[in-house]
Specification:
It is built from 9 helices and 2 strands. The chain is mainly α and 256 residues long. Helix 1 packs antiparallel against helix 8 and helix 7 runs antiparallel to helix 8.
């Protein structure tokens, strides 16, 4: 069915092979007689502790994710604000430098979109933002000082947002927490595999559900941790939308 081809199920399809493999391994251990442990109430405590740790990690990554959702829109708004100021100069003075600046903003917008795909380096993008200075210097002869001040403020805002996005993209939230969560998840699933739980087929179903939940949570946390992974070719659904920047590029390319 078409509904199962949508990107929102991509993460489920990534997890299912692991769950299938774990279930097969459990069946093999059962029929080979390698179930050494008896189910202990401590297993329930381990599940609770692991879920608590995963919840802590998700809470931290969601904070950055909610902030990340608005960053492309703020970049687009800042570019359009600069464009509005430059259009005022062009319409008032018919200054050719203003028209050149508008063309430069189109290239800057394209550079930002390429930067999200990692086709451009952060240093190159920062140099392109710095390249606005030559236009601002030329505008001092044809406009008021407060116009230049507003343009410089927007330029500074662009820099701060690019640095923030770069930081979110290149760093992970509490890497040591990920390591602990992965180790505990592995040990918990392994303990369930070697535990003798009756009736067998009911235990197999329960182990499959627990494995799916824990592994899915680990994948989800890692996915949320980098909402700017547009350079990766898989169909992750938690990426922040770049539509505001794409829309601003379309508006820049319209004739003035």
């Amino acid at each position: 069915m078409k509904i199962f081809q949508t990107e929102k199920y991509f993460l489920i399809f990534r997890v299912l092979p692991f769950v299938f493999g774990i279930s097969l391994f459990k069946v093999a251990l059962h029929f080979l007689g390698f179930e050494f442990f008896s189910l202990s109430p401590l297993v329930t405590s381990l599940v609770t502790a692991n879920v608590f740790l995963l919840g802590f990690l998700i809470g931290g990554t969601l904070t950055d994710y909610k902030e990340s959702e608005r960053l492309p829109g703020e970049l687009a708004a800042s570019l359009e604000t600069i464009s509005d100021e430059v259009k005022i100069i062009y319409q008032n003075k018919k200054n050719p430098v203003a028209k050149e600046c508008l063309e430069y903003l189109i290239e800057l917008n394209k550079c930002m979109l390429d930067w999200f795909q990692k086709d451009k380096r952060t240093k190159e993008l920062m140099r392109n933002i710095e390249g606005l200075n030559k236009f601002f210097l030329a505008f001092e002869q044809v406009t008021q000082a407060n116009f230049i001040v507003r343009l410089k403020q927007e330029q500074n805002f662009l820099r701060r947002q690019v640095i923030r996005i770069h930081t979110i993209r290149e760093t992970s939230f509490v890497p040591a927490g990920y390591v602990v969560a992965e180790i505990v998840t592995f040990l918990l699933i392994f303990s369930l595999l070697i535990s003798k739980i009756e009736p067998f087929y009911e235990s197999l179903f329960s182990i499959g559900i627990i494995s799916f939940l824990l592994i899915y949570m680990l994948f989800l946390i890692k996915e949320l941790d980098n909402p700017f992974s547009h350079y990766e070719k898989n169909k992750m659904t938690s990426r922040v939308s770049l539509k505001p920047l794409e829309d601003s590029l379309n508006s820049f390319e319209q004739p003035i």
